[in-house]
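lol so apparently i was supposed to do this last week
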Amino acid sequence: MATAIDAAADAHGLTARVWHELSLALRDRGHGWRTPVLATVDPEQQPQARTVVLRGVDAEKSQLRVFTDARSPKVAELRARPRAVLVFWSAALNWQLRATVDVTVLDQGTEVDAAWARVSPSAAARDYLTPVAPGQVLQGSAGGTAGQHHLAILLAQVQALDWLELGGQGEEHRRCRITPEGVERLVP
Ligand SMILES: Cc1cc2nc3c(=O)[nH]c(=O)nc-3n(C[C@H](O)[C@H](O)[C@H](O)COP(=O)(O)O)c2cc1C
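anyway here it is w/ flavin mononucleotide bound
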Protein backbone atom coordinates (compact mmCIF):
# COMPACT_ATOMS: atom_id res chain seq x y z
CA MET A 1 0.00 0.00 0.00
CA ALA A 2 1.38 3.43 -0.91
CA THR A 3 1.76 5.43 2.25
CA ALA A 4 4.42 7.94 1.42
CA ILE A 5 3.82 11.65 1.30
CA ASP A 6 6.69 12.69 -0.90
CA ALA A 7 7.76 15.99 0.58
CA ALA A 8 6.84 18.48 3.23
CA ALA A 9 6.11 20.85 0.38
CA ASP A 10 3.22 18.57 -0.49
CA ALA A 11 1.23 20.03 2.36
CA HIS A 12 -2.08 20.16 0.55
CA GLY A 13 -1.53 16.62 -0.61
CA LEU A 14 -1.09 15.47 2.98
CA THR A 15 -4.22 17.22 4.23
CA ALA A 16 -6.26 15.79 1.37
CA ARG A 17 -4.79 12.34 1.87
CA VAL A 18 -5.56 12.37 5.60
CA TRP A 19 -9.20 13.33 4.97
CA HIS A 20 -9.40 10.73 2.20
CA GLU A 21 -8.23 8.03 4.61
CA LEU A 22 -10.81 9.19 7.15
CA SER A 23 -13.55 8.84 4.53
CA LEU A 24 -12.24 5.37 3.58
CA ALA A 25 -12.37 4.40 7.26
CA LEU A 26 -16.07 5.23 7.28
CA ARG A 27 -16.81 2.58 4.66
CA ASP A 28 -14.11 -0.02 5.35
CA ARG A 29 -14.70 -2.09 8.48
CA GLY A 30 -11.08 -3.28 8.39
CA HIS A 31 -9.59 0.23 8.35
CA GLY A 32 -7.72 1.00 11.55
CA TRP A 33 -9.09 4.52 11.62
CA ARG A 34 -12.67 3.25 11.87
CA THR A 35 -12.36 2.87 15.65
CA PRO A 36 -10.55 5.86 17.18
CA VAL A 37 -10.16 6.52 20.89
CA LEU A 38 -12.10 9.53 22.16
CA ALA A 39 -10.39 11.27 25.09
CA THR A 40 -12.22 13.73 27.32
CA VAL A 41 -11.78 15.34 30.73
CA ASP A 42 -14.44 14.57 33.33
CA PRO A 43 -15.91 16.97 35.93
CA GLU A 44 -13.29 15.82 38.48
CA GLN A 45 -10.59 16.89 35.98
CA GLN A 46 -9.71 13.24 35.41
CA PRO A 47 -8.84 12.00 31.92
CA GLN A 48 -11.30 9.57 30.32
CA ALA A 49 -10.85 7.62 27.09
CA ARG A 50 -12.85 5.05 25.17
CA THR A 51 -13.05 3.44 21.74
CA VAL A 52 -15.78 4.71 19.41
CA VAL A 53 -16.80 4.08 15.80
CA LEU A 54 -16.35 6.80 13.20
CA ARG A 55 -19.80 7.50 11.74
CA GLY A 56 -19.36 10.64 9.68
CA VAL A 57 -16.59 12.50 7.83
CA ASP A 58 -16.97 15.90 6.18
CA ALA A 59 -13.65 17.08 4.78
CA GLU A 60 -15.11 20.36 3.51
CA LYS A 61 -16.31 21.34 6.98
CA SER A 62 -13.50 19.57 8.86
CA GLN A 63 -16.08 17.64 10.86
CA LEU A 64 -16.20 14.11 12.23
CA ARG A 65 -19.21 12.32 13.72
CA VAL A 66 -19.66 9.62 16.32
CA PHE A 67 -22.90 8.08 17.61
CA THR A 68 -23.43 7.47 21.28
CA ASP A 69 -26.07 7.04 23.97
CA ALA A 70 -27.17 10.47 25.15
CA ARG A 71 -27.16 9.18 28.75
CA SER A 72 -23.53 8.00 28.68
CA PRO A 73 -21.05 9.82 30.92
CA LYS A 74 -19.04 11.09 27.95
CA VAL A 75 -22.01 13.18 26.84
CA ALA A 76 -22.19 15.05 30.15
CA GLU A 77 -18.41 15.43 30.08
CA LEU A 78 -18.52 16.94 26.59
CA ARG A 79 -21.40 19.25 27.43
CA ALA A 80 -19.39 20.63 30.34
CA ARG A 81 -16.10 20.68 28.41
CA PRO A 82 -16.44 20.37 24.63
CA ARG A 83 -12.71 20.11 23.89
CA ALA A 84 -11.66 16.51 23.20
CA VAL A 85 -9.11 14.48 21.28
CA LEU A 86 -9.76 11.61 18.86
CA VAL A 87 -6.77 9.32 18.41
CA PHE A 88 -6.58 7.11 15.32
CA TRP A 89 -4.02 4.42 14.52
CA SER A 90 -3.66 2.43 11.31
CA ALA A 91 -1.14 -0.39 11.32
CA ALA A 92 -1.59 -0.72 7.54
CA LEU A 93 -0.58 2.89 6.96
CA ASN A 94 1.72 3.17 9.98
CA TRP A 95 -0.12 6.42 10.61
CA GLN A 96 -1.29 7.90 13.89
CA LEU A 97 -3.67 10.85 13.76
CA ARG A 98 -4.55 12.94 16.79
CA ALA A 99 -7.49 15.24 16.12
CA THR A 100 -8.11 18.07 18.55
CA VAL A 101 -11.83 18.72 18.34
CA ASP A 102 -14.64 20.79 19.82
CA VAL A 103 -17.69 18.61 20.25
CA THR A 104 -21.34 19.61 19.95
CA VAL A 105 -23.87 17.09 21.23
CA LEU A 106 -26.92 16.69 19.00
CA ASP A 107 -29.67 14.75 20.80
CA GLN A 108 -32.73 15.82 18.83
CA GLY A 109 -33.68 17.27 15.48
CA THR A 110 -33.57 16.21 11.88
CA GLU A 111 -29.98 14.97 11.91
CA VAL A 112 -30.64 12.70 14.89
CA ASP A 113 -33.88 11.49 13.28
CA ALA A 114 -31.95 10.67 10.08
CA ALA A 115 -29.23 8.86 12.04
CA TRP A 116 -31.84 6.84 13.94
CA ALA A 117 -33.56 5.94 10.69
CA ARG A 118 -30.24 4.44 9.55
CA VAL A 119 -29.45 2.67 12.83
CA SER A 120 -32.89 1.44 13.89
CA PRO A 121 -33.16 -1.47 11.42
CA SER A 122 -29.72 -2.80 12.48
CA ALA A 123 -28.60 -4.88 15.45
CA ALA A 124 -26.83 -1.78 16.79
CA ALA A 125 -30.23 -0.22 17.54
CA ARG A 126 -30.45 -2.05 20.85
CA ASP A 127 -27.36 -0.12 22.06
CA TYR A 128 -29.53 2.99 22.17
CA LEU A 129 -32.65 1.40 23.63
CA THR A 130 -31.48 -0.01 26.97
CA PRO A 131 -33.88 0.88 29.78
CA VAL A 132 -30.98 1.78 32.10
CA ALA A 133 -28.23 4.25 31.19
CA PRO A 134 -24.76 2.98 30.12
CA GLY A 135 -22.32 2.84 33.00
CA GLN A 136 -24.94 2.21 35.67
CA VAL A 137 -24.34 -0.72 38.03
CA LEU A 138 -25.98 -3.81 36.57
CA GLN A 139 -29.03 -4.87 38.60
CA GLY A 140 -30.17 -8.30 37.47
CA SER A 141 -30.34 -8.32 33.70
CA ALA A 142 -29.53 -5.44 31.37
CA GLY A 143 -31.65 -7.11 28.75
CA GLY A 144 -34.69 -5.70 27.11
CA THR A 145 -35.32 -2.48 25.33
CA ALA A 146 -37.55 0.46 26.06
CA GLY A 147 -39.52 2.37 23.46
CA GLN A 148 -37.59 5.61 23.40
CA HIS A 149 -34.17 5.64 21.74
CA HIS A 150 -31.25 7.60 23.20
CA LEU A 151 -29.06 7.99 20.14
CA ALA A 152 -27.04 11.19 20.13
CA ILE A 153 -24.55 12.48 17.57
CA LEU A 154 -21.21 13.82 18.72
CA LEU A 155 -20.36 16.43 16.09
CA ALA A 156 -16.62 17.03 16.30
CA GLN A 157 -15.26 20.19 14.71
CA VAL A 158 -11.59 19.56 13.98
CA GLN A 159 -9.32 22.37 15.17
CA ALA A 160 -5.98 20.71 14.54
CA LEU A 161 -4.55 17.41 13.32
CA ASP A 162 -1.27 15.91 14.47
CA TRP A 163 -0.18 13.33 11.89
CA LEU A 164 2.66 10.91 12.59
CA GLU A 165 4.05 8.40 10.15
CA LEU A 166 6.26 5.71 11.60
CA GLY A 167 9.08 5.00 9.20
CA GLY A 168 9.98 1.42 8.44
CA GLN A 169 13.43 0.00 8.98
CA GLY A 170 16.02 2.65 8.23
CA GLU A 171 13.34 5.23 7.40
CA GLU A 172 12.69 8.35 9.39
CA HIS A 173 9.47 9.03 11.20
CA ARG A 174 7.57 12.04 9.92
CA ARG A 175 5.19 14.31 11.75
CA CYS A 176 3.08 17.27 10.69
CA ARG A 177 0.68 19.59 12.43
CA ILE A 178 -2.26 20.46 10.20
CA THR A 179 -4.40 23.49 11.06
CA PRO A 180 -6.55 25.89 9.03
CA GLU A 181 -3.44 28.10 8.88
CA GLY A 182 -1.41 25.43 7.09
CA VAL A 183 0.87 22.45 7.59
CA GLU A 184 4.04 22.49 9.69
CA ARG A 185 6.69 19.80 9.80
CA LEU A 186 7.43 18.79 13.41
CA VAL A 187 10.21 16.78 14.96
CA PRO A 188 8.60 13.36 15.44
C1 LIG B 1 -14.75 -1.44 19.03
C2 LIG B 1 -15.62 -0.58 19.92
C3 LIG B 1 -16.41 0.37 19.36
C4 LIG B 1 -17.22 1.19 20.16
N1 LIG B 1 -17.98 2.16 19.56
C5 LIG B 1 -18.70 3.00 20.34
C6 LIG B 1 -19.42 4.07 19.74
O1 LIG B 1 -19.42 4.28 18.51
N2 LIG B 1 -20.13 4.90 20.56
C7 LIG B 1 -20.15 4.72 21.91
O2 LIG B 1 -20.81 5.50 22.60
N3 LIG B 1 -19.47 3.71 22.51
C8 LIG B 1 -18.75 2.85 21.76
N4 LIG B 1 -18.04 1.83 22.34
C9 LIG B 1 -18.12 1.68 23.81
C10 LIG B 1 -17.22 2.73 24.48
O3 LIG B 1 -15.86 2.37 24.30
C11 LIG B 1 -17.52 2.89 25.98
O4 LIG B 1 -17.31 1.68 26.63
C12 LIG B 1 -18.94 3.34 26.24
O5 LIG B 1 -19.40 4.25 25.25
C13 LIG B 1 -19.07 4.03 27.60
O6 LIG B 1 -18.22 5.17 27.62
P1 LIG B 1 -18.39 6.32 28.72
O7 LIG B 1 -18.75 5.63 30.01
O8 LIG B 1 -17.06 6.97 28.78
O9 LIG B 1 -19.46 7.26 28.25
C14 LIG B 1 -17.22 1.01 21.57
C15 LIG B 1 -16.39 0.05 22.13
C16 LIG B 1 -15.61 -0.74 21.32
C17 LIG B 1 -14.73 -1.78 21.97
